[in-house]
Design a protein that fits this description.
Number of helices: 7
Oligomer: single chain
Strand order of the largest sheet: 2-1-5-6-7-8
Order of helices and strands: HHHEEHEEEEEEHEEHH
Structural class: alpha+beta
Radius of gyration: 24 Å
Strand content: 15-25%
Distance between the termini: 85 Å
Helix content: 25-40%
Number of strands: 10
Shape: elongated
Bound molecules: flavin mononucleotide
Length: 257
């Protein structure tokens, strides 16, 4: 075929297009893969941080290695409060389950103090090798949904760590929920009192009395962001109620002795 032939010109242009399309698709796939991996890495980092591994992360520890050696993903049935294998924990996506009628349930209005309307039937939790439990929490903030984790010690009541990894609160105000200084108050606090009733509360900034009998259950609120503090209180109240992780933690406490 002559180099001046129109057919050859079209053929070369066509082949060039095919090669370029394949290259662009491959680049997009690599990018999607990398984005998915980075997202997974962030979640792993958050779970590890909530689970008390912040120092190892700061020391440059390998996140994947720390995660796989210290954390086990498990699903719990929130209604029975027991671990479940009803669905595959590896493919289960709790965020997506919320909008799947088969995998979610409506929260009765009087119990919906976190302002979420619906919750997944199964919660994806992480159990650390030392027995600590890292539990996912979510609820309405002042400006949008907030997603986080609370880590609870083997006694099923002492907080080991607390973090929100996604929210829309205002920088300098509600977004201080992410400030390590504010989060540092949480470890050591007790979620339940001796009778097993929910006792953890967030008081208005400056009203926390470290000498009060209930100091072990009290978190000092955020300065200039009482609304967000109240939202976090609602989230805590819901997720540690009988409709949230209350049954599961009571069951675990009884089993662990
Ligand atoms: C633009 C704007 C953004 C705000 N963002 C927040 C917020 O993210 N969280 C919050 O609690 N309060 C926020 N506030 C303040 C609340 O309206 C309210 O004044 C505050 O929560 C009261 O807290 P205080 O009693 O500690 O002052 C915001 C106010 C304005 C004007």
């Amino acid at each position: 075929m002559s180099n001046d032939s129109i057919l050859k010109t079209f053929l070369v242009a066509f082949l060039l297009c095919v090669v370029c399309s394949v290259l662009v698709c491959m680049a997009a796939l690599v990018r999607i893969d990398k984005e998915a991996y980075n997202k997974q890495l962030e979640i792993r980092k958050t779970v590890l941080a909530a689970g008390g591994f912040q120092q190892q992360i700061d020391d440059g520890g390998n996140i994947d290695e720390l995660f796989t050696t210290n954390m086990e993903l498990k699903l719990i049935d929130l209604d029975s409060g027991e671990f479940t294998t009803a669905v595959d924990s590896v493919t289960y996506n709790q965020k997506e389950a919320v909008s799947d009628p088969a995998l979610s349930e409506a929260i009765p209005a009087d119990l919906d103090v976190a302002g979420i309307g619906t919750r997944a039937k199964y919660a994806a939790v992480y159990q650390a090798t030392n027995g600590d439990l890292v539990l996912p929490i979510r609820g309405a903030g002042m400006w949008g949904p907030m997603y986080g984790y609370v880590a609870v010690a083997d006694d099923c009541t002492t907080i080991k760590g607390f973090t929100f990894y996604q929210h829309a609160e205002t920088p300098g105000l509600g977004a201080e929920v992410d400030n390590p200084r504010w989060k540092a108050q949480w470890p050591g606090k007790q979620i339940f009192d001796n009778s097993g009733a929910l006792a953890l509360k967030i008081v208005k900034n400056g009203r926390m009395d470290p000498n009060a009998a209930d100091a072990i259950n009290t978190i000092d609120g955020l300065a200039g962001a009482t609304v967000t503090g109240n939202k976090v209180q609602g989230i805590v109240r819901y997720w540690f109620s009988q409709h949230g992780f209350g049954k599961f933690l009571a069951n675990q406490k009884a089993k662990r002795g």
